[in-house]
Design brief:
Elements lengths: L5 H8 E12 L2 E12 L3 E5 L6 H7 L10 E9 L2 E2 L7 H7 E4 L10 H11 L6 H14 L3 H4 L12 H14 L4 E5 L7 H14 L4 E5 L3 H7 L2 E7 L5 E8 H6 L4 H7 L5
Parallel strand pairs: 3-8, 3-9, 6-7, 7-8
Antiparallel strand pairs: 1-2, 1-4, 4-5, 9-10
Bound molecules: adenosine-5'-triphosphate (ATP).
The site of adenosine-5'-triphosphate (ATP) has 14 residues, from helix 2.
GO biological process, one term: phosphate ion transmembrane transport
GO cellular component, one term: membrane
InterPro entries: AAA+_ATPase, ABC_transporter-like_ATP-bd, ABC_transporter-like_CS, P-loop_NTPase, PstB-like
Length: 268
């Protein structure tokens, strides 16, 4: 049967969709009237000058803003066609299906193995030890870290290099089998080689997951994303979406002159 309902069609195409989304911190409107769809199994980069609301938008995608007193979202944020902010939606379940990797690698002060096993366990993991071993291996392989750590799974996650710690955090996110991975400047604390490794990893992960990344690094957005959303503050300091398109289009032939000025380094 062909689907003709526009809401269902957009849920099939988009992993996430915002419609007239406004985000406030108490009385301050940080993000104004943002509407766009995040394509499934693609990498979408959010770019724009400091303070334009990139992280705020990213955090709205898995209800991380709920943890900030005074923060509130208006409008719709749809995940599989369902409003993430509907009263019957459990934010903890949302965060299981929409994982997050932060700017600074933040492994738990536990063994490498337990860093991975922790999430599934608190989510009510029912398997046996052998199955957990498999899940740990699969997650570490998924984050391209298995070969580095397979002989030292009981060592502390904090003993790894910065780039390895970030891949451990990605493995930890994968362990709870999310559909979407949000990354907030995941490479800003890493050296160029570790950065490239994470970018290669993102390309691999794209086969199975949808990725949204906030980055300050324009080269990174240009080389490592499929779609780019460019945000800018208006006169009231509220972040607005200026342009959203294929990354190639944004970087080679942007429609809005402000995008052109930003990517050519004339402001921000
Ligand atoms: N917890 C908070 N409480 C109050 N205001 C906040 C909070 N977090 C962010 N803001 C404000 O919301 C606006 C958007 O911030 P946000 O961190 O989303 O921007 P950004 O584009 O990610 O910036 P940067 O690139 O510097 O990380 C800014 O004016 C910021 O001061």
């Amino acid at each position: 049967m062909t689907t003709t309902n526009p809401a269902t069609m957009s849920a099939e195409r988009f992993a996430l969709e915002t419609r007239n989304m406004h985000i406030y911190y108490s009385a301050f409107r940080a993000v104004k009237d943002v509407s766009f769809g995040v394509e499934r199994n693609k990498i979408t980069a959010l770019i724009g000058p400091s303070g334009c609301g990139k992280s705020t938008v990213l955090r709205s995608f898995n209800r991380m803003n709920d943890l900030v007193p005074g923060a509130r979202v208006e409008g719709d944020v749809l995940f599989r066609g369902q409003n993430l902010y509907a009263p019957d939606v459990d934010a903890v379940q949302v965060r299981r299906r929409i994982g997050m990797v932060f700017q600074k690698p933040n492994p738990f002060p536990k063994s490498i193995y337990d860093n991975i096993a922790f999430g599934p366990k608190i989510n009510g993991w029912k398997g046996n030890k052998g199955e957990m071993d498999e899940l740990v291996e699969r997650s570490l392989r998924g984050a391209s870290l298995w070969d580095d750590v397979k002989d030292k799974l009981q060592q502390s996650g904090l003993s790894l290099s910065g780039g390895q710690q970030q891949r451990l955090c990605i493995a930890r996110a994968l362990a709870v089998e999310p559909e979407i991975i949000l990354m907030d400047e995941p490479c800003s604390a890493l050296d160029p080689i570790s950065t490239l490794r994470i970018e290669e990893l993102m390309f691999e992960l794209r086969q199975h997951y949808t990725i949204v990344i906030v980055t300050h690094n324009m080269q990174q957005a240009a080389r490592a994303s499929d779609y780019t959303a460019f945000f800018l503050m208006d006169a009231d300091r509220a972040g607005q979406l200026v342009e959203y398109d294929h990354t190639e289009q944004i970087f080679q032939n942007p429609k809005d002159s402000r995008t052109e000025q930003y990517i050519s380094g004339r402001f921000g």
